[in-house]
Amino acid sequence: MRASRRDRFAIAVLLAGALITAPRASRADDAPAVPWYQALTVNGFVSASYGVNLERPRYFGNQFRVFDFDQRSFNLDVAELVVQKAATRPRETGFRIDADLGGSVPRVADNAPVALRQAFTTWIAPVGSGLRFDAGKFITPFGYEVIEGCDNWNDEATRSLLFGFAIPFTHTGVRAGYTFSPRVSALLLLVNGWDVVRDNNHTPSGGAQITITPAPPVSVVFTGMIGPEYARDDGDKRTLGEVVATWKVTSALSLGVNGDLARERAPSYFFFPPFIVTSEARWRGAAAYARFAPSGPWALSLRGESFDDKDGSRTGAPQSINEITVTPEVRLSSAMVLRADLRMDHSTIAAFETHGGFRNRQRTILVNALYHF
Fold this sequence. Notes:
Blueprint: H1 5-21, E1 41-53, E2 73-85, E3 93-101, H2 105-109, E4 114-125, E5 131-139, H3 161-166, E6 170-181, E7 184-191, E8 205-215, E9 218-228, E10 237-248, E11 253-269, E12 276-292, E13 298-309, E14 319-331, E15 336-347, E16 352-353, E17 358-359, E18 361-372
Antiparallel strand pairs: 1-2, 1-18, 2-3, 3-4, 4-5, 5-6, 6-7, 7-8, 8-9, 9-10, 10-11, 11-12, 12-13, 13-14, 14-15, 15-18, 16-17
């Protein structure tokens, strides 16, 4: 079977990582080279769940969800294996590869049962404290929430509407990051666009992020991106701006907010070219988070959000959707967490399937177990 373009790209990244990170012969005045296998770290993550939709849909499952679209079914959400050689100081090189297997994350990210979530090489240039360059495929810097893995996972088991519809998942290209001080850092990106390995037009998208930590318990992150995202269309651009703020109120209480605002121009074609009109779509959303984790294994997380898709460009129908999620959690060990999401979605239209039709609300319960090493 011939390899796809995505597979050839992944192989090229792996070979490049191996070449730039391979040990080199040391000079007489250098310390002995560390064997290559001792420089690698391997980590893993497994998430499994079972969910129930109380509206009992017949055909479509959970609607307007990202990874938890199946209901009344046991699901292996994702099994992740991460291999990396860390680069932390100037002149160091490294790489990272995240391979995913499962029924939700790979299915969304790459439309396949097995996916490369990330695959990039790293070089830290000897500029000041170290100018970091990554090249390859990497997770987007947007969002309060993340695609869960061994590095980090969300407080809620289900993903927010903003995570699913307001922002991208991954990018392929290059990024450069620099830490100016313990309180200010910045990131620049030049990428193919939103969730594409091979660009679908001839113009890349550009982005920037600045993180400000005025005091250790408070952090504010501003992120923006602009570029064309439609196939064979370099003129109509998508613009996204975001702010994320977190506040560690006490050792037991954490708060967070996330806001997104986007607009996009897209061509609309009549049946008889060259008659063309250009439409404009806008979407916006805001989410608030709270987590109470006193000493001991128990914790409770809350999320409330609203997503306005007035032109229907993201959800497929002009609507505003609100949701609230309550997540009790118990840590069974240092490596294993058990949690449950009690969630209700509400739309301004009858957008959710029930056993006998459609209504404007959706109630779901999901139990999730995750393990990491």
